Amino acid sequence: MRFELFIAARYLRAKRRQAVVGVITAISVVGVAVGVASLIIALSITTGMRRDLQGSLLSSTADVDLTRTMSDGIQNWEPLLARLRELPHVTAAAPGLYDPVLISHGVRGTGAMLKGIVPKDERTVSNLLSDFTHGSGVALSDPESSATPPIVLGSDLADTIGASVGDTVLVTSPQGDLTPYGLVPRYQRFQVAGIFHSGFYQYDSSFGFIRLKDAQALFGEPDVISIISFKIDNLYQAPAIGQQIEKAAGKGFSTTNWMEQNRQLFAALQEEQVVTFIIIGLIVCVAALNILIALTMMVMEKTKDIAVLMSMGVEPGQVRRIFLLQGLLISVIGTFFGLILGYAISLLGQHYHFIHLNAQVYSIDYLPFAPRILDGVAVAALSLGVSLIATLYPSSSAARVLPAEALRYE
Questions:
Q1: Phi-psi group of 329: left, alpha or beta (phi > 0 → left; psi -120 to 50 → alpha; rest → beta)
Q2: Could you tell me the pTM of the whole model?
Q3: E strand intervals along 201-351
Q4: Distance between CA 367 and CA 354 in Å, rounded?
Q5: Residues linked to residue 154 through DSSP beta bridges, in sequence order
Q6: What's the short name of a Pfam family annotated to this entry (predicted)?
Q7: Chain CA centroid to CA 192, Å
Q8: DSSP string covering 230-245, please?
Q9: I need a labelling partner for 211 at 20 to 30 A (CA). Which of 31, 58, 93, 280 fits?
């Protein structure tokens, strides 16, 4: 062990003539540990929120969507779909027909977004039909499943209207028929075949799926679709691949991708992570102030010892390093225990999901934790760096002690 480190460790373990110095030193260690643990937990939560929201969005939606710039829908879509499936980087494609509707069961009803799909294609671009709480989506794949067409509802949407598997719901479309008595809305009764739960409130509360042919009949759009959805082989190249798809589709088409659709959400999450790091990092700064105070008081207490060491030939630079290492030891101990505490709580939260959220507010129903090694490295660097800065003044003061003045009256 180096001489400076030996003396620094010895000073930390030694009994104090002034108990307050030992108390402040203990508070400094606890403060650093709490600050580091808080930062690890906060960054774990923000990373988990971003991961889960992104995962839910990407599993529930396509990577790229192709639509017509005009509102007349996509006609002669089957040859276009077959051609676009062969494009580079496109791994899957599915047709769809969207329209807002009113879904009611008995006296209860609510607005929803109804999508007509080809189930075998839809499952290649979205996972919404892969997790059912009741029933299944098998009926959507059967062209003649029953006299009443099947429908699949989101779990929160089903709860809102009080529908369960086997019930019949009434779907009313604003796309009506013109009669001598005015515009009469189209409506159709559907039998609930399944209830899905994605964990993403936006979809669970407002989405329903029916067969594409049933949607075309309901909306009065024979052999027309409104969107072609794509899965691609590189999520982060979605803008460039979207431009290729748009160019291949020809004039009158436009594309959007998952980045554009959720840019504001992910920007807000990124800003939240930065602000959280700064605000909770102030706890570490407060702990560093405690280190400064503890070392300053320790220098005052050890003035005679410093003078004796310097009179025996210890250089001012060595004295400075003694107190620098002493402050660093306090920071290292606090950072070590803070990392253990922070990662322990984060890993428990990741495994047990013990903090539940209101899905209507946060879009997910539990608080996610996603601890990362990189966050621990950044937090440890911040803690050690701030603590090192806090030791500069007291260590410099110790190096300026004059042995003759300090020992004059001893």
A1: alpha
A2: 0.71
A3: 207-211, 224-225, 227-232, 253-257
A4: 8
A5: 196
A6: FtsX
A7: 33
A8: EEES-GGGHHHHHHHH
A9: 58
Q: Are 75 and 223 in contact (CB under 8 A)?
A: yes
CA distance 166 to 349: 38
Q: What angle do CA 19, 23, 27 make, to 5 degrees?
A: 170
30 is written with which tokens? Answer: 């606890």
In the chain, the N- to C-terminal Cα span, in Å, equals 31
Single-letter code of the amino acid located at 32: V
Residue type, position 105, single letter? H
CA angle 248, 252, 253 (to 5 degrees): 55
Percent of residues in the chain assigned helix, strand, coil, to nearest 5 = 55, 20, 20
d(C-alpha 319, C-alpha 324), whole Å: 9
Which H or E element spans position 181? Answer: none
| 372, 43 contact by CB (below 8 A) | yes
CA separation for the pair 170, 107 (Å, rounded): 11
Find out whether 223 and 80 touch, Cβ atoms under 8 Å: no
